[in-house]
Fold this sequence. Notes:
Elements: E1 2-7, E2 17-22, E3 30-33, E4 36-39, H1 41-49, H2 54-66, H3 72-80, H4 88-94
Amino acid sequence: MIEISVRGTAEPRRDGLRARTRPSLPSRDVGTLDRIPTTSPARTLLDLSTELPTKLLARAVNEADVLDLIDVETLRAELETRAGTPGAKRLIALLDKDTFVLTKE
């Protein structure tokens, strides 16, 4: 299943495609890779934190770190500015400095 985020309210419908519609998507959350629009790693992790079980969310954070897509300290600071964003509270709790440990799986 391919998951995408799109601006607007019209949800694209295609087999094998799951769309997340956003009335707006801040420019800080949008980039490109090989001319393909993408969401930032922080936005992607926020979206995942609204759906994945904790173990899989931690695995996603670890994978993003291994691939050098995120820096956990920078992500923590960015999440503090997104306190009202869905998923932020859960991701902040997961990344608690006293309990979260990166693994190199």
